């Protein structure tokens, strides 16, 4: 969904390297089906436009998986990004640069300051909007995800899944789901996506209201009912 | 999966389910090979949108760079210091047989011999790549005749020489030609050795110190003139003394020119060096340790009498002596035995033991960009080993050239 600008593709901290080491090399994907933005393209805006085109040509995105930054950004849509933005060049916020410094030997001067990223609008692209967001917190320390969203066959991005772990993301999660949709916390835009799952661990819920967390944890028994074949057969 | 390669049509082989030695540690990674070289799969994926043509399951084996033996005098009845009519087939036999010991490149070694032997034998040794026919030849190692009388060990006294009169020219006349010579062992206390060392170094020949009674300053001077190796540390040199450590002192000398490293050969067969001495050397200078076999013609054969150049040698188990004496002369150890013994005696990591037989000799000879590692674009000479470091299969240029068969032969 993004790539640093100006960083050599084979740099160990580039997103190409990250995707290769953590995903592509472990599976048998056809390399022709792997598309990552090229942060060293001669015309960066053209590269972004081409990426949007590729998404369209592929028929849209079935599953969008992402994390969030401590400043609530999704991909590199830093606080202040337009909620209708498309794939484009973004300058990184200081928060992000500081968070990334640990991957560049703690040397701020080595951290890239710009990146290409999909826009909030790119991911939100939907012909019908339904306000149904499901958040599931984990029980004890296991990660659990439930999706009880309403099916919408018209969406361009079928399913959005955001993974949030750790206490340092807790405040961003609070802003993302307990406050309103806000361009200063761009991941909050997904409240308006028809099918979104936020998967998080116990620590990430530390800034939420106890009531919110209890509500979603309470959904476990609903989930169990749905996945237990014997049970649902009896119901019908 | 069909691959789309814009760079080459050659088949790509992916070795999976293995642990490879890279960047000094054993990593759970696949090894990719194309056209005899180690391939970068990330580059293949993003640049060429390519993928593997063949996937081989290595069943959890360790994959390490092939071993490099820089001191081997013969084996299986073949003696590199004997100018026989079938010398060429002899060297071919040894290079083929040592594949089963994990050796993919070696330096055939000649002990002190009369000039006639050098003149006849050296032209028959050529630097060549390895393959199914056998391990690659990196060049000859000439151990002697410019060595010390007092530390001749198993070398024949009547063939010892000096280069007092004509320095480098004397050496050249003795050997005949340096075309395929990779290493020369000499005693640095000999007169005019500095000139000879400088001249050899200028010509890209690695100079090694051995069979010598040099003190530490003479050894340091030799290093300053270009010497980079020590032949079988501890053997055939003055013992370590706390007020004059001799050649052994080079391991911790502070007079080594910046950016250079002194390497030292060790025969870790359990006989040439007491394990405690092996540990002392390893702990003092771990990055310089190079495992060598110093194997002789009797290696791989039944116990009994064999030749070593002009001498007769008696083999009894792992002990090899000049017939009728207690003077050690070479060994019958194989390289993989040395690696295992080294690992056991020092308690070092598997990575360290494997690098002492691959990376370090490659660094000594200045060929580590090509050999001795599993880095991308280097030659695909590698071994499959089990966890006890027994060689299961040997590959040269990406082709399997030896495999342990089920009967364990």
Written overview of the protein:
The complex is a heterodimer of chains A (236) and B (409). Chain A has a single domain (2-235), classed as 3-Layer(aba) Sandwich (Rossmann fold). With 236 residues, chain A is α/β, with parallel strands linked by helices. Chain A is globular. In chain A, 28% of the residues lie in helices and 15% in strands. The model of chain A is unreliable at 127-155 (pLDDT under 50). Chain A has helices at residues 15-22, 44-57, 94-100, 120-124, 170-177, 210-218, 220-227, 229-235; strands at residues 2-4, 61-67, 88-91, 114-117, 133-136, 157-164, 196-200. In chain B, the strands form five sheets. In chain B, strands 8, 11, 12, 13, 14, 15, 16, 17 and 18 form a nine-stranded parallel β-sheet that branches. Chain B has a six-stranded mixed β-sheet with strand order 3-2-7-22-23-24, with helices on one face. Chain B has a four-stranded mixed β-sheet with strand order 5-4-1-6, with no helix packed on it. Chain B has 409 residues and is of the alpha/beta class. Chain B has two domains: 13-64 and 373-403, Roll (Urease, subunit C, domain 1); 66-365, Alpha-Beta Barrel (TIM Barrel), CATH 3.20.20.140. In chain B, strand 15, helix 6 and strand 16 form a beta-alpha-beta unit. The mean pLDDT of chain B is 93. The radius of gyration of chain B is 21 Å and the shape is globular. In chain B, 22% of the residues lie in helices and 24% in strands. Chain A binds chain B through residues 9-10, 16-17, 20, 24-25, 28, 30-32, 34, 36, and chain B through 1, 4, 30, 41-46, 48-51. Chain A: GO terms for molecular function: glucosamine-6-phosphate deaminase activity; identical protein binding; isomerase activity. Chain A: Residues 7-75 form the Glucosamine/galactosamine-6-phosphate isomerase domain. Chain A: Keywords: Carbohydrate metabolism, Coiled coil, Cytoplasm, Hydrolase, Isomerase.
């Amino acid at each position: 969904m993004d790539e640093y600008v100006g960083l050599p593709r084979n740099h160990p901290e580039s997103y190409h390297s990250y995707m290769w080491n953590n995903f592509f090399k472990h599976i048998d994907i056809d390399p022709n089906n792997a598309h990552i933005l090229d942060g060293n393209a001669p015309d960066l805006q053209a590269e972004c436009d081409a990426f949007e085109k590729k998404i369209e040509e592929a028929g849209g995105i079935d599953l969008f998986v992402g994390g969030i930054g401590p400043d609530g950004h999704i991909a590199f849509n830093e606080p202040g990004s337009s909620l209708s933005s498309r794939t484009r060049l973004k300058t990184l916020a200081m928060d992000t640069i500081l968070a990334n410094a640990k991957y560049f030997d703690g040397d701020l001067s080595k951290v890239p300051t710009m990146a290409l990223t999909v826009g909030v609008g790119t991911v939100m692209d939907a012909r019908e909007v339904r306000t149904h967001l499901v958040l599931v917190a984990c029980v004890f320390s296991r990660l659990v995800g439930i999706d009880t969203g309403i099916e919408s066959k018209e969406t361009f991005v079928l399913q959005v899944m955001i993974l949030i772990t750790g206490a340092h993301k807790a405040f961003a999660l609070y802003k993302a789901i307990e406050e309103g949709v806000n361009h200063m916390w761009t991941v909050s835009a997904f409240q308006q996506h028809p099918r979104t799952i936020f998967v998080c661990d116990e620590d990430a819920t530390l800034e939420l209201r106890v009531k919110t967390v209890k509500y979603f944890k309470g959904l476990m028994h609903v989930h169990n009912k749905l996945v237990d074949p014997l049970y649902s057969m009896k119901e019908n | 999966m069909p691959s789309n390669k814009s760079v080459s049509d050659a088949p790509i082989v992916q070795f999976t389910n293995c642990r490879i030695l890279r960047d000094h540690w054993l990593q759970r990674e696949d090894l990719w090979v194309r056209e005899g070289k180690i391939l970068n799969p990330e580059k293949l994926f993003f640049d060429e949108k390519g993928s593997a043509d063949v996937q081989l399951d290595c069943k959890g084996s360790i994959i390490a760079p092939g071993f490099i033996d820089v001191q081997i005098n013969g084996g299986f009845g073949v003696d590199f210091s004997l100018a026989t009519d079938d010398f060429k087939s002899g060297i071919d036999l040894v290079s083929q047989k040592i594949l089963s010991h994990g050796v993919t490149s070696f330096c055939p070694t000649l002990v002190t011999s009369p000039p006639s032997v050098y003149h006849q034998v050296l032209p028959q040794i050529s630097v060549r790549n390895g393959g199914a026919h056998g391990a690659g030849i990196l060049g000859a190692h000439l151990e002697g005749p410019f060595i010390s009388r007092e530390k001749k060990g198993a070398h024949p006294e009547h063939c010892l020489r000096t280069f007092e009169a004509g320095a480098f020219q004397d050496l050249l006349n003795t050997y005949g030609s340096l075309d395929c010579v990779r290493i020369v062992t000499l005693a640095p206390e000999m007169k005019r050795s500095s000139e000879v060392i400088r001249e050899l170094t200028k010509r890209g020949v690695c100079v090694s110190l051995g069979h010598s009674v040099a003190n530490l300053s003479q050894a340091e001077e030799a290093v300053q003139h270009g010497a980079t190796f020590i032949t079988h540390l501890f053997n055939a040199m003055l013992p370590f003394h706390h007020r004059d450590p001799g050649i052994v002192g080079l391991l911790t000398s502070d007079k080594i020119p910046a950016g250079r490293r002194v390497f030292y050969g060790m025969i870790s067969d359990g006989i040439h060096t007491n394990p405690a001495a092996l540990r002392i050397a390893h702990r003092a200078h771990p990055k310089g340790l190079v495992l060598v076999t110093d194997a002789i013609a009797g290696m791989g054969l039944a116990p009994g009498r064999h030749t070593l150049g002009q001498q007769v040698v008696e083999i009894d188990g792992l002990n090899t002596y000049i017939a009728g004496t207690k003077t050690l002369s070479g060994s019958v150890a194989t390289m993989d035995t040395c690696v295992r013994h080294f690992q056991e005696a020092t308690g070092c990591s598997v990575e360290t033991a494997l690098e002492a037989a691959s990376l370090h000799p490659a660094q000594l000879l200045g060929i580590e960009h090509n050999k001795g590692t599993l880095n991308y674009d280097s030659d695909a000479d590698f071994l499959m080993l089990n966890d006890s470091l027994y060689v299961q299969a040997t590959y040269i240029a990406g082709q399997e050239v030896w495999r342990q068969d089920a009967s364990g032969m």
